Amino acid sequence: MVLKALKMTLKRSISGVEVTRLYPEKIMDLPDAERGIHVLEIRKCIGCGACARICPNGCIEMVEYKRGNPVKNKRLQYPKIDYGRCMFCGLCVDDCPPDCLHMSKTFEIAGWDRDDIIYGTEDIGVGMYTDQELSELAEEARKAEEEKKRKAAEAAKAKKAKAAKAEAGEAASSEKPAKKAE
Which residues form the 4Fe-4S ferredoxin-type domain (predicted)? Predict the structure, then answer.
């Protein structure tokens, strides 16, 4: 019996057949449907919070992130994921309307503290904006806000003029019957 086991061991060591996985040195090929750490495409995210609402474990929280797109995501709210609570079900990915949240094949999540496995927007985000792009986006958002205020002021002015015109029309119509009565 012992000789049989030694024979098997010797045969495996000489043949080059891999018996155990050499995990840290050699990572195995993962299937395409692997559910690993989330990846957030910052440029697509609109901050709707659908991922946070659908999460059954409540591990996704929408937090403010200043380096986002103020034109697309006016509140600058992006997901933060607590991998200590995540069960990698993929519901958040399926429910994302702009299709900006994906699951990667990266599966190594480790840390010394609980806070080490809570990934913020900067940890899961890809396609980050440069400082120049952020300043251009901020300028674009400011111009859009000014245009919105200008249009609101014009609408209020037009409404006021229409109300004044209607008042003048009512006053003129009430004076005509008084002249006929005389």
Answer: 36-65, 77-106
Amino acid at 16: G
71-123 pLDDT, tens digit per residue, is 888 889 999 999 999 999 999 999 999 999 999 998 888 889 999 999 999 99
User: 18-129 domain in CATH 2.60.120.200?
Assistant: no
Q: In sequence order, which residues have a C-beta less than 8 Å from that of residue 99 and are 6 or more positions away?
A: 44
Sorted by where each begins, the domain ranges of the chain are: 18-129, 130-171
Burial of 26-57, coded b for 16+ CB within 10 Å and e otherwise, reads eeeeeeeeebebbbbbbbbbbbbebbbeebee
**Tokens, residue 179:** 């002249």
pTM comes to: 0.68
Q: 10: which 2 tokens?
A: 């010797």
CA dist list (Å): 23 to 10, 14, 19, 80, 103: 23, 21, 12, 29, 21
Report the 10 Å Cβ neighbour count for 161: 10
121-163 residue pLDDT tens? 999 999 888 888 888 888 888 898 899 999 999 998 888 888 8
